[in-house]
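yo

u said u wanted the structure for the complex thing, so here. seqs first:
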Amino acid sequence: MKQRSSESRGRIMTTTPHRVVIVGAGFGGLEATYRLAGAPVDITLIDRRNHHLFQPLLYQVATASLATSEIAWPVRHLMRDRREVTTLFATVSGVDATRRCVLIDDGSEVPYDTLVLATGARHAYFGHDEWEQFAPGLKTLEDGTTLRRHILVAFERAERETDPARRAARLTFVIVGAGPTGVELAGTIAEMAHHTLPGDFRNIDTTKARVVLIEAGPRVLAGFADDLSAYAQASLEKIGVEVVLGQPVTEINREGVVFGGKLLEAKTRIWAAGVRASPAAEWLGAPADRAGRVQVEDDLTIPGHPEIFAIGDTVSINAWEGKPVPGIAPAAKQQGKHVAETIKARLRGAATGPFRYKHAGSLAQIGKRLAVIDFGRIKLRGTIAWWIWGIAHIYFLIGLRHRLSVALSWLWIYARDQRAARLITQGSSKVVG
Amino acid sequence: MKQRSSESRGRIMTTTPHRVVIVGAGFGGLEATYRLAGAPVDITLIDRRNHHLFQPLLYQVATASLATSEIAWPVRHLMRDRREVTTLFATVSGVDATRRCVLIDDGSEVPYDTLVLATGARHAYFGHDEWEQFAPGLKTLEDGTTLRRHILVAFERAERETDPARRAARLTFVIVGAGPTGVELAGTIAEMAHHTLPGDFRNIDTTKARVVLIEAGPRVLAGFADDLSAYAQASLEKIGVEVVLGQPVTEINREGVVFGGKLLEAKTRIWAAGVRASPAAEWLGAPADRAGRVQVEDDLTIPGHPEIFAIGDTVSINAWEGKPVPGIAPAAKQQGKHVAETIKARLRGAATGPFRYKHAGSLAQIGKRLAVIDFGRIKLRGTIAWWIWGIAHIYFLIGLRHRLSVALSWLWIYARDQRAARLITQGSSKVVG
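structre next:
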């Protein structure tokens, strides 16, 4: 992509600064906004949520380990000191690329000179959307509290159930998909059942709960090195997770999950198997892959629209030494940074280059004092990996207050197996009976 | 009420312990359970929520100051080491006093020898139930997060509103009822508008938000001494709250609140004016006052049913030197303690006596460094009262973890006016547009 110095030089000299609209305040959108600090631009940051979510720890909300406010920040507050940034809490319904404006669902429009689409992804059910009602996924804070309610209510209902088969179904937790989220959910639910809950119930033995992790592929944590996958699987099995590999799920219904031609009765089913990009590609009529991800140019612009960038989970790009960039937070942040630098270079009339992804490493927590880290040449496992995992995640949180709060919550889980956020909310009275 | 030693003596000697069923895990029910520790009883503690809620700080959830998990505890976990206590997460639909069993809404029954009803109260609209949809009240955690969403969304919509009158209506917050909850809500919303939010918005000046506290009676904090009421009113006005006294609200609708024959346009209306007891009296066909509160005997038993106690906000009793016992946490706890001691005395065959309420004092926070405390002879106001208020509330939280967490949250609000729980959740994408 050539630099567009003719346009940018013009903009710099006018009194109206270059208008950048960023849709999505996830890792990519936020990083782009941060990196544009000091540039001669006016920024509008639009999100349909009022908060930035630290998605890598969302499974800890679902498993009652962390409170919602410990992994979320009001976007508006993060941009408090950036007077050139306007935060808009609104739902985008489309983009008019000809007139260069973003369409809001209330009928209003936000004009742009440069547009950055960082709209993320939702979980996808591979053409089986009807499975969603039986196996919720995990993307938003509400997904987290909904899943938390499912898990906690399952134990409560098992406590009151007298029929052994039905009780067993209540105490069976199936997680579909053994990527990092699936592994972390399975490991944490097993920890809860074995260490947090046992003393609290009178009729059930929560350590008898079955946690089943089902993966269509041949190993858990496919993005990690083979030996770390094997270690993760062994660790999961040691803490009580049943790992089922090479078994695609063929049916999910209110009774349970079908794989290998058999129904496993389970009242709690969690989907961690696939995502689908947000409709950014549809808004633009841009080429997309099967998962709906925009196929962007090598500088992250939309083909034919050098003034529109797309980043993060909503795009597909082979910028990792020719391989696809993984859908993880550091990748979105690197892309956000690249976009900001490209915009700044254009405004200066300087040359811009393609995006190149640098993989810092892959991390996954399996359970207490159990994690795997794949830095490429260096591979870590067990307690040392777990400490690095914890310290890294606290480091990446925004602000001292959240860091102290999460550290406090983890200290209590570590020392006393006590999870403070064991709250059944959102119509709790309705789910019983 | 006479002691019932004939029954109790028999129970002590049998191998089946005396069965106590406690409905409601609020302050009263929890205290009764705690105080029965060591007694020869089997306890079933039933609540339709899985958590005990520290209601005195619920307004801080509504105003984004505290996270839900900071003021709630899983009941089951609190009773972890009490092997004789069974916690039941269930909704009670009635009581069969003849067959001595509690009816659960799933059709099951829980038999009792002694029953303790500690089922609390909901807000009441004095015959105007249709007002509830326009002016929500504050009793449950969900009420807290719902109100938080209302308040935060009001500012968000005002930021996007271009019509001055509609913007003013978005930025007008009406609180009906100037008891402690109303005063604390009004004061905290004013603090938010003046100190937490100003830098975060670009189109609106949040310090121009109107916070209007309407009270039908002649003064705020009617339960406090006259001079403390006057001080509280002056303090509220100093931090930007408009106080309207002697004005009953005659209408609440989607436009605003009508009082004194005039409509005040306001998109956020909060009900803090009245409560109605839970249907315990109806379950028993017992005599009740206008607010639905059971009129209990002087030992807190139901007339004609010495084996059934009722305590807390669900009862009406003139046990405060002949005056009605106030509907506050310490009163419920004293009643719970009295019931536990009466049950234990009966089981020992000892004499029991009437309940007498001892008033320790009344506390209300008005704003930062502003509170009033009425200890009877000693009255405190301002900064010293605020510190005592804060320390007392942290002291009454359960467990070191919650105390540290709340202290951390308050430290950030105190030092930086930063409220961590500014999250719009529960269908957030739907409320915009």
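The first helix of chain B runs from residue 5 to 13. Residues 1-14, 427-433 of chain B have pLDDT under 50 and may be disordered.
cya
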